Amino acid sequence: MATPLKVGLAGLGTVGVSVVRLIDRQRSALALSCGRPVEIVAVTARSKAKNRGVDLKRVRWVKDPITLARDPGIDVFVELMGGAGDPAKRAVETALAHGKSVVTANKALLARHGVALAKLAERHHVALNFEAAVAGGIPIVKTLREGLVGNKLARIYGILNGTCNYILTRMEQEGLSFADCLADAQRLGYAEADPAFDIEGHDTAQKLSILASLAFGTKVDPAAIYVEGISSIAPEDLSWADELGYRVKLLGVAVDTGKGIEQRVHPTMVRKDSAIAQVMGVTNAVTVDADAVAAITLVGPGAGGMATASAVVADIGDIARGVRTPPFGRATDRLVTSRKAPMQRHEGGYYIRLLARDKPGTAATIAHRLAQQGISLESIVQRHSGPRPQGGDRPDKTAGPVPVILITYATTEDAVRRALAAVKRDRVIMGAPQVIRIEKN
Ligand SMILES: NC(=O)c1ccc[n+]([C@@H]2O[C@H](COP(=O)([O-])OP(=O)(O)OC[C@H]3O[C@@H](n4cnc5c(N)ncnc54)[C@H](OP(=O)(O)O)[C@@H]3O)[C@@H](O)[C@H]2O)c1
Predict the structure, then answer these.
(1) Separation of 322 CA from ligand 1 center, angstroms?
(2) Partner of 152 at 20 to 30 A CA spacing, among 54, 64, 268, 417?
(3) Which pLDDT tens digit goes with each residue over 265-322?
(4) Dist. CA 238–CA 241, nearest whole Å
């Protein structure tokens, strides 16, 4: 009988307990697939006394994660505690330094310390696997690191935060406000009590920084990402998008512009018939534009105990087989620094919603200001607030402002901002214009 792979597991929460269950359930299939059994031999968590609903009688309890990480009785250290700091960081460093391969689902740790940890893994000739850290159960890390190695990638974009997609889906389908949907997401346990990290796009940015590194060889660096969240999206943006053939998603996008890698997270209009637009609720999806295989989209659960455990167990399986790939797909000294994308230079189409004063000449003024910046319009929709006064098309002086929706052809963000500043100075609109970038797909 081949020697079993001995696993030490730190963290017995949602994901950790599911990993215990999955390894137990897949015991014989895993042994067949890996050519050797996989056994959890030691575990740790904060509380030893907590009933976790799994049988851990034959598993050794170790008093803390650092002690477990250097335990001579384990071959691989699985970190499922979370957090960018200690004990997760020190435990992972300890395990790597002791020549043990590491599996982690911890995107926060990787986003902050990924390159340094990968360097440590390299130095000690061990694996650092993190499939579960991005998009939960979707095997996007392996796809980028191994499956697409024969391709030059042009762009990768994805729905990487289930909470945001849940909120946008309900706003779109039920016409509810952002605040109502957020409250529901919190009630259902999809959103944290402090939801800012999710809804302001930072969770997506951490995940994108990892994907961009795998896709383009950049150093993992969330600070190189332009980030904008979804809290400014109004239900009317979603209904206008629908009318114009689009849907709004919070996307993380990394694209090779030819001048560098542009990384950005923001609400994005995508064509309603695109693969990514079909992804609703808490589901995640990633589309990769690759030259040989063309565009592929992977869709699946971005969170949840069993789905995430599926990715963790796959990583453990690779270690059992003796497969070791560079954590970010190439040697760490070949990873390049990526500068923060200057969004003024971003090129693409734009959705612009203005609240125009209902008076003669407003549309002409807006069109003139856009034309001055060389912006061409794909469509323009203007709704008047009510019936016109009798006998002519002179607007009623008491009529309120009317929404004007513009869809531009590709232009630069700088041009859009300048045109809108001029329109504002012309006093033909009220309030701040809403601007949503359109992603071609
Ligand atoms: N949940 C998901 O759907 C999901 C999806 C993708 C990735 N992830 C990632 O997976 C990791 C684990 O997430 P989770 O949802 O399973 O978290 P969780 O349910 O909060 O579990 C965390 C576990 O870590 C243990 N722990 C925390 N601090 C510790 C410490 N100082 N010393 C020892 N043990 C400690 C806790 O012990 P006690 O139980 O004794 O308190 C608990 O068992 C995180 O990095 C998360 O980002 C989670």
Answers:
(1) 27
(2) 268
(3) 999 999 999 999 999 999 999 999 999 999 999 999 999 999 999 999 999 999 999 9
(4) 5
Out of 119, 142, 207, 249, the active site residue is: 207
Residues with C-beta less than 6 Å from any ligand 1 atom:
11-16, 44-47, 50, 65, 80-82, 87, 105-107, 132, 136, 303-304, 308
| Contact residues for 197 (Cβ-Cβ < 8 A; gap 6+) | 203
Q: How far apart are CA 266 and CA 247, in angstroms?
A: 13
Please calculate the CA angle 160-128-112 and round it to the nearest 5 degrees.
55
Residue 127 CB neighbours (<10 A)? 21
Tokens of 306: 């069993």
Listed residue (383, 358, 371, 357) closest to 408, CA to CA: 371
Contact 436, 248 (CB under 8 A): yes
- The model's pTM is 0.95
Q: How far apart are the CA of 15 and the centre of ligand 1, in A?
A: 7
Map tokens 């696997």 to a residue: 129
207 flagged as catalytic: yes
